[in-house]
Every structure is written in C-alpha cells, then in structure tokens.
Amino acid sequence: MSTKKIPLRQCIGCGEMKSKKEMIRVLKTSEDDIILDATGRKNGRGAYLCASMECFRKAVKNKGLERSFKMAIPKEVYEAMEKEMEQIG
C-alpha cells in the first residue's frame, strides 16, 4: 500500500516547508498583477506564504516576493495584500 504524497511548499517568509493546503498562494498573473489566490487554482506564477501576518511581514522585509517573481513590487500592492491577509487570518 502506497500512501498519497502530500505536496509541500516553502514559505517565502520563514522558509518552512508545509503542506500546500496550510499555505496561502500569492499569484503573479500574466498582466503582472500580484494577488492572493485563495483557491490555489488560478493561472500564473505562484509563491506561498504561511497564513500568519508574521510571515507576511518577513516576506516584505526580506523581499521574498520580489525574488520569487523577479520584479519590483509597489508599496500599494503590499498594503492591499496586508488587508486581505488580515481578513483571512
């Protein structure tokens, strides 16, 4: 009997490996928009964050999102994401 493999993803804030279901997916669309993807199924380049504000702040501080998406991210995008994270968490 083989057990089903659980997909793991690394948090861009703390660097911890966790199951995909525990994480929040941050998405870069083909139009270079940065959004939170609650379903985890939208098209685009994804990066993952733990569902805590602490990890979000670490990702902002160490520019984890900017490295993952290889682009500069405006302050307004971070502010909008922070409001969404507060609603989720």
How would you explain this protein's 3D organization?
This is Nucleic acid-binding protein. It comes from Lacrimispora algidixylanolytica. Pfam families: YlxR (PF04296). This protein has about 90 residues and is of the alpha+beta class. The chain is built from 3 helices and 5 strands, in the order βββββααα. The protein has a single domain, classed as Hypothetical Cytosolic Protein, Chain: A (2-Layer Sandwich), CATH 3.30.1230.10. About 20% of the residues are buried. The protein has a 3-stranded antiparallel beta sheet. A two-stranded antiparallel sheet has the order 1-2.
Please summarize what this structure is.
With 89 residues, this protein is α+β, with helices and mostly antiparallel strands.
Computed structural class: alpha+beta
Distance between the termini: 37 Å
Widest sheet, order of strands = 4-3-5
Average pLDDT number: 91
CATH-defined architecture? 2-Layer Sandwich
The number of distinct structural domains comes to: 1
Query: What percentage of amino acids are in beta strands?
Result: 15-25%
Strand count, sense and closure of the main sheet? 3 strands, antiparallel
> What value does the Rg take, in angstroms?
13 Å
Strands, count? 5
Share of helical residues = 25-40%
Order of helices and strands: EEEEEHHH
Give the CATH superfamily. Answer: YlxR-like
